[in-house]
Amino acid sequence: MRPAAEAQAQLRSLPRSRNVYLVPYLLWMVLFVFAPIVLIVYDSLFDVEGAFTFSNYAHFFTPVYMKMTFSSFWYAFLITAFSLLVGYPAAYLLTKTKHKQLWLLLIILPSWINLLLKTYAFIGLFGTYGAANAILKTIGIGQQQILFTDFSFIFVSVYIFIPFMILPVFNALEEMNPSLIDASRDLGASPWTTFRRVIFPLTINGVKSGCQAVFIPALSLFMITRLIAGSRIITLGTAIEQHFLVTQDWGMGATIAVFLIIAMAVIMVLTGSSRGRTRR
Known about the structure:
Blueprint: H1 2-43, H2 55-60, H3 63-96, H4 100-108, H5 115-126, H6 131-138, H7 150-175, H8 178-186, H9 191-202, H10 204-219, H11 223-229, H12 236-245, H13 250-279
């Protein structure tokens, strides 16, 4: 009876010991997630003169900020779409290569380089006397304005975010049972039908994770937008930067940040709930 009683006592103490390990995680969440959000919400309730007001939220729904919101979502959608169009075939080809882990490491390696350094590198490449214009001159097209265009902004953003699309798709493809593809071919399905009816549905969770990992940070871009697109593209991220660093209207900048946080949370909840339904 004594060993059984001791075992029961140990089982009762397990939840308490596990709760102790949660303390650092909870402290981290409170200090670096919840507290900053509370401070942003607090700042959004004051105008530029420090007076308490709700006018910032009313001002956000004016045509100027609605246009910025649409522009932010549109460019985030384009960046995510192009990342998926390039990243999915790349991840699929990686699963067929001989040294797949090495190739995957080479794709992920650029993400370890500082974002600012990569952005300035593209400024040199796409500049008036950069390598891109030198190639265009060589093939007879002539010098073009590449920097400060929609193309350069989307191209650089896709380059920076594409590892975050390839990795979850690659993992989903690796976990897929290859016998299902063989069965589809044995039943006479074409390669396109096999992809559409077997491969893509089985890897949809990886696609959702990749789209989430790209769309959410792309929604709040400001540094790449400022350096690569200049003043041509104005998004919510650049508006926040302007309000905090130029106009010193912290209340309006915090209000925009609140709406961005809400949008990101909604996206995460929607993708998370859909994954839960597919598992069930």
